[in-house]
Write a structure and sequence with these properties.
The chain has 61 residues and is mainly α. 48% of the residues lie in helices and 0% in strands. The longest helix has 16 residues.
Length: 61
């Protein structure tokens, strides 16, 4: 793999597993959600999607 310094940040090895552990832990705390570029993508659409999903979980939609 080649990393391009001018591109979007790339997650390091093990990222998917760390995020899964975080999301499982947060799921056990009522009223707490996580969202943003640290999770499932650094682009604007990915960030909006994590925020939307978190908000939907909070309101039970």
């Amino acid at each position: 793999m080649t990393r391009w310094g001018g591109g979007l940040p790339q997650y390091g090895p093990g990222h998917v597993e760390r995020v899964a552990r975080l999301e499982r832990a947060v799921a056990g705390v009522p009223g707490l959600e996580v969202a943003g570029a640290a999770l499932h993508g650094v682009g604007i659409p990915a960030c909006v999607a994590t925020g939307d999903a978190a908000a939907r979980r909070l309101v039970g939609a």
